[in-house]
From TrEMBL:
Protein name: 3'-5' exonuclease domain-containing protein
Domain of life of the source: Eukaryota
UniProt lineage: Eukaryota, Fungi, Dikarya, Basidiomycota, Agaricomycotina
Listed InterPro entries: 3'-5'_exonuclease_dom, 3-5_Exonuclease_domain, RNaseH-like_sf, RNaseH_sf
Keywords: Hydrolase, Nuclease
Length: 395
């Protein structure tokens, strides 16, 4: 299968061989060139990027203006004051300043330098107005300048990490070429699109793609608020839904963790012993009395001994979910009195815990209990726990 030929890189010198480029760092040098500059011009801004989170943006460093004969790269960050002629040119409604998605740029220019910009043209909106059959989708979705150059000029506009370089120092030859191409290509695309608009029978209204930025506010020439809207634009059918993204490594780790947590509440551990009844809690709303030594779950909470009367309702505290357990306990064994046999219980005494509860893993056996008699459960009657009572698995 034959591959499409690669496009020729864009170069302002190839399209305008008679144009002159001026890199200016002094306002006294900028003013004479700006006094003779006429529109329309391609317009762009550059500033030094920030690579630290929550760090304010650096101010605008370079203003780029280009027409068929002149390209000006004015590095205002190297100047003590904003060039007066540059301010006059930007604030003049007589000259078109064309660029792609420059709304945020002109607002930033005002915030950084207090300069308004009038008669701005968004090339993305202009392209959607005059070539609606080609461009579908949301009206205010920006179209990249490189894409417009590829479609209408059949050239490749280089876009690389140069845009994220330091624009406050002395510009390198690579930066100068990059900035000149950006501004000049904006002028070339404007010339192409406005010619298409003039050839249309029903040309779109300029307000559909033109705006002013006065004191940081986007507005129409009349002063009314400008809305990015074109009632004649056809966005076409809605795009198909995006396919689901494959799970990332983080998603897989979280899913595995959720599975382990879910499994920990359903794991059953079989424990052998002579105690007839066991009080267990397996993550449900109520504890359960088991007549067989089968305990659900890997962590069970048990009531804390609170007074000498081990079988009274006041002798047991609630679960963390505030469900009392006293009425789930079996009655005293035959011949047992709650006061006289309290000391005979294999785990007598008070166990200080949060919420009056403790994990069986924290229980230390009494002096009379076998050395291995601290499984993850407590018998609910006066039966002794044998040394082979088993051990519940850890969560």
């Amino acid at each position: 299968m034959a591959t499409a030929p690669s496009l020729v890189p864009y170069s302002w010198l190839n399209l305008s061989p008679n144009a002159t480029l001026h890199y200016i760092r002094d306002p006294d040098q900028a003013n004479p060139h700006l006094a003779t500059l006429s529109g329309p011009v391609g317009f762009d801004l550059e500033w030094k990027p920030t690579f630290t989170k929550n760090t304010p943006e650096n101010p605008v460093a370079v203003v780029q203006l280009a027409n068929r004969n002149t390209i000006l790269l004015i590095q205002i960050s190297a100047m003590q004051e904003f060039p007066e002629k540059l301010r006059d040119f930007l604030e003049s409604p007589d000259f078109v300043k064309a660029g792609v998605a420059i709304q945020s740029d002109v607002i930033k220019l005002y915030k950084d330098w207090g300069v308004s910009t009038r008669n701005c043209v968004d090339l993305s909106l202009l392209a959607r107005c005059v070539d609606n059959a080609r461009w579908k989708g949301k009206y205010n979705n920006p179209l990249g300048l490189a894409r417009l150059i590829e479609v209408y000029e059949n050239l490749a506009l280089p876009k690389d990490k140069t845009s994220r370089s330091n624009w406050e120092g002395d510009l390198t030859s690579r930066q100068i070429e990059y900035a000149a191409n950006d501004a000049h290509s904006g002028f070339v695309i404007y010339e192409r699109l406005i010619a298409m608009a003039n050839a249309m029978e029903n040309a779109p209204k300029p307000v559909y793609y033109t705006f002013d930025a006065v004191r940081g506010r986007l507005c129409e020439p009349t002063g009314m608020h400008w809305n990015c809207y074109n009632p004649d634009y056809d966005p076409g059918p809605p795009p198909p839904p995006k396919p689901p993204k494959p799970p990332t490594a983080r998603d897989l780790r979280r899913a595995a963790l959720r599975a382990r947590v879910a499994a920990s509440t359903t794991t059953s551990a079989t424990v052998s012993g002579s105690a007839p009844n066991y009080l267990t809690f397996s993550g449900t709303t109520e504890p359960t009395i088991h007549s067989t030594p089968l305990i659900s779950g890997s962590q069970q909470y048990f009531p804390s001994r609170k007074s000498a009367d081990v079988h009274s309702s006041s002798s047991y505290l609630s679960t963390p979910r505030r469900h009392p357990w006293s009425h789930y306990l079996p009655p005293p064994a035959t011949g047992e009195t709650s006061a006289s046999n309290h000391g005979a219980h294999p785990y007598p005494g008070n166990f200080p815990t949060r919420s009056g509860l403790f994990l069986a893993e924290t229980i230390q056996p009494s002096v009379n209990a076998p050395a291995r008699a601290f499984p993850q459960y407590i018998p609910t009657d006066n039966a002794q726990v044998g040394p082979d009572a088993g051990h519940a698995s850890s969560p």
